[in-house]
UniProtKB/TrEMBL annotation:
Family note: Belongs to the prokaryotic riboflavin transporter (P-RFT) (TC 2.A.87) family.
Signal sequence, start to end: none
Main localisation: membrane
Lineage: Bacteria, Bacillati, Bacillota, Clostridia, Peptostreptococcales
Protein's UniProt name: Riboflavin transporter
Membrane topology: Multi-pass membrane protein
Keywords: Cell membrane, Membrane, Transmembrane, Transmembrane helix, Transport
Subcellular location, record wording: Cell membrane
Organism: Peptostreptococcus equinus
Length: 172
C-alpha cells in the first residue's frame, strides 16, 4: 500500500496500488476468509502507520478490495482451472465496481465529505472533469471507472502468480 500510483484522469486521492495481490493469493490458495483477513490486516497496518484519509481510505479498501478478493476466491474455489480463473476475475471486477460505487455513494464519500468537506471532494472531481457537479456524477465518472480499471489491473497482474502457484492452488 505504500507504493501507490496516481492516475491523472482521477482525483488525487484515488490511487492504484497492487497491495490486493497478497490477499488475492491467500484467497485463491486458502479460501475467501483467509483472503479477506489478509485484506483486513494490511489495511489495519496501513491505518496505524500512515493513513492520510482518517481511516476512510482504509475502510474503503477493506470493503471494496475485500469484495474483489472474496468474489474471485469463491468462484475459483468451485473449479480450479484457467477458465474458472478468468471467470472469477471478470466477476470480481464487476462486483468490485458495483460494491465500490454503492458503498461510496451511500456511505464512504458522505463520511469523507464530513471530514474534508463535500464541496472540496466535488471540486476535486470538477477540476478533472467539468461534468462532475454532485455526488452521483462523481461516483459515475470516477469511482466506477476507477474500480473497473483497478479490477482489470489486478486481474492482469495476477496471471504470473497464477502460473507459478497453479500446482499449489490445485493441491488445496
Amino acid at each position: 500500500m505504500f507504493i501507490e500510483m496516481p492516475i491523472p484522469i482521477f482525483p488525487s486521492f484515488l490511487k492504484i496500488d497492487i497491495s490486493d495481490i497478497p490477499a488475492l493469493v491467500a484467497g485463491l490458495a486458502l479460501g475467501p476468509i483467509a483472503g479477506f483477513m489478509v485484506e483486513f490486516i494490511k489495511n489495519l497496518l496501513h491505518l496505524i502507520t500512515s493513513t492520510q484519509t482518517g481511516g476512510v481510505g482504509e475502510l474503503a479498501n477493506v470493503i471494496v478490495g475485500g469484495s474483489f478478493v472474496v468474489t474471485s476466491s469463491m468462484i475459483y474455489r468451485k473449479n480450479r482451472d484457467a477458465k474458472s480463473y478468468i471467470k472469477a476475475f471478470l466477476a470480481a471486477t464487476i462486483v468490485m465496481t458495483l460494491v465500490g460505487s454503492i458503498v461510496n455513494y451511500f456511505f464512504l464519500l458522505p463520511f469523507y465529505g464530513q471530514l474534508m468537506g463535500m464541496d472540496a471532494i466535488i471540486g476535486m472531481g470538477k477540476a478533472v472533469n467539468p461534468k462532475v457537479n454532485d455526488l452521483l456524477s462523481f461516483v459515475l465518472w470516477f469511482i466506477a471507472p476507477f474500480n473497473l480499471l483497478k479490477g482489470l489491473i489486478l486481474s492482469i497482474l495476477s496471471v504470473p502468480f497464477f502460473k507459478k502457484l497453479d500446482n499449489i492452488l490445485k493441491s488445496k
